[in-house]
Amino acid sequence: MSHIEKLVEGFKRFQSNNYAANHTLFERLTKLGQSPKTIVVGCCDSRVDPAIVTDCDPGDLFIIRNVANLVPPFETSGNYHGTSAALEFGVRHLDVENIIVLGHAQCGGIRALLNQKPATEPLEGFISNWMRVASHARNRVLSRMHGESMEKQSRACEQEAILVSLDNLLTFPWILERVAQKKLVLHGWYFDMEHGELLRYCSNSNSFEAFD
């Protein structure tokens, strides 16, 4: 069986089991549209599906996925801005109440960022340019963890990049306004899939801690 055939067989199981068992839910979502309360900015990594990690139903989450779950700063250069457009739709049109930046262990994008070498010429491709969004996270980690193992540096940078994205969210005027009005709450979460733990950023301790 090819992988495509495996996916089709999976859909058939979903259709006969999940869809049939939750027909009322899907019918309501079809008629009334979506009204999620939470945006999740997650990574494209195939091992980390926000809906699976949080065991959510269809319609619960408005999910934005990109390499390394990054939020770029607000800017209007006229280029293509998929993540920013999705944030705008979720915040301004769906009126979500929460935004979660969901990072994770063993992130390939963060590992690539840490392995980048200073270059006099622009690097080819899209990944290196995109990962510059988290360049401050890389610089902070390398400055304070020089000589540490790549594993420790990667974990620290994965978490530091979440904080960069939380800061960047506040550069969007309509996000900052809603946060100030207490209509919107920002969260930094980290999924440690090596140990099956979900951590949250606590500003009081300036660290990622397990949920109670």
Give structural attributes.
six-stranded mixed sheet; 2 domains; 9 helices; alpha/beta; Beta-carbonic Anhydrase, Chain A
Please render the helix and strand layout as text.
Layout: H1 3-21, H2 23-32, E1 38-43, H3 50-53, E2 61-66, H4 82-93, E3 98-104, H5 108-115, H6 127-131, H7 135-144, H8 150-169, H9 173-180, E4 185-192, E5 197-202, E6 207-210
Parallel strand pairs: 1-2, 1-3, 3-4
Antiparallel strand pairs: 4-5, 5-6
What does it look like?
Strand 5 (197-202) and strand 6 (207-210) form a beta hairpin. The longest helix has 20 residues, at 150-169. The chain folds into two domains: 1-32, no CATH class; 34-210, Beta-carbonic Anhydrase, Chain A. The protein is built from nine helices and six strands. The protein is 45% helix and 17% strand. It is globular and about 55 Å long. The model has no long low-confidence stretch (mean pLDDT 94). The termini are far apart. It has a six-stranded mixed β-sheet. The chain has helices at residues 3-21, 23-32, 50-53, 82-93, 108-115, 127-131, 135-144, 150-169, 173-180; strands at 38-43, 61-66, 98-104, 185-192, 197-202, 207-210. It is α/β, with parallel strands linked by helices and 212 residues long.
The ordered string of helix (H) and strand (E) elements is HHEHEHEHHHHHEEE
> If classified by CATH, what would the architecture of the largest domain be?
3-Layer(aba) Sandwich
Helical content stands at 40-55%
Number of contiguous helices? 9
Shape: globular
CATH topology of the largest domain: Beta-carbonic Anhydrase, Chain A
Report the CATH C-level class of the largest domain: Alpha Beta
Radius of gyration: 19 Å
Largest sheet: 6 strands, mixed
